[in-house]
Amino acid sequence: MAPKSRRARLKSLESANSILDKINVQLLGELLKEPRLAMAELARRLKMSAPAVTDRVQRLEDAGVIAGYRLAIDPRALGFPVTAFVRIRPEPRQLQKVAELAVETPEVVECHRITGDDCFLLKVHVGAVEQLETILDRFLAYGQTTTSIVQSSPVPTRALPLPTPTTSI
User: Fold this and answer.
1) Do residue 53 and residue 110 come from a single domain?
2) pLDDT tens digits along 31-60
3) Which of 47, 94, 125, 144 could pair covalently with 89 via S-S, beta carbons 3.0-4.6 A apart?
4) Facing residues of 146 across strands?
5) Closest to 12 measured CA to CA, from 71, 68, 54, 60
6) Which domain holds residue 87?
């Protein structure tokens, strides 16, 4: 799927609310449990034909409800046992440079523009604290950083709760 503009995504999400009927919510539930589920199996579980289910999945993708399919990899298995959240307060006129540096830094796996005193929240995976220090030094050229190293994650990344379905289409 090609990335959409912000305006196109908002329009898609508005139309998405109108297609979240009982069947589509059930379909999303099945895909949340098993994203690689074959359309034939998904159709069997929903007691529908494979073409009908494929059409529904396509409409959910087009509307932006299904934004993509991802592979979850444990960063520790790849040699990145240290996870940190970094808040950044850019110096005047450095906002764009901080965003560009975040995009250019492969250890930054998430970057969010946030409200409050800080402007950015980054999630970073590194092999050691010394590597984190090197990354922070690059950002310090453009603003102040505040870093929190993750000790544990009692609630790992999980799927969103599904909404109550609207009436059928």
Assistant:
1) no
2) 999 999 999 999 999 999 999 999 999 999
3) 144
4) 87
5) 60
6) 75-149
Q: Do 41 and 79 sit in the same domain of this protein? A: no
* Per-residue pLDDT reduced to its tens digit, 87-142: 999 999 999 999 999 999 999 999 999 999 999 999 999 999 999 999 999 999 99
Same domain, 136 and 93: yes
- The span from the CA of 74 to the CA of 78, in Å, is 7
Pairs from 148-152 (Cβ < 8 Å, separation ≥ 24) = 148/84, 148/85, 148/86, 149/82, 149/83, 149/84, 150/82, 150/83, 150/84, 150/85
Tell me how far apart the terminal alpha carbons of the chain are, to the nearest angstrom: 25
- The whole-number pLDDT of residue 12 equals 54
Establish if 21 belongs to a structural domain: yes
Q: Assign residue 126 the CATH number of its domain.
A: 3.30.70.920
> What φ, ψ does residue 144 adopt, rounded to 5°?
-90, 145
Which string of b and e fits 19-46 if b means at least 16 CB within 10 Å?
A: bbeebbebbbeebeeeeeeeeeebbebb
Name the residue with higher pLDDT: 14 or 166. 166
Tell whether pTM > 0.85: no
- Within a domain: 67: no
Residue 158, pLDDT > 70, answer yes
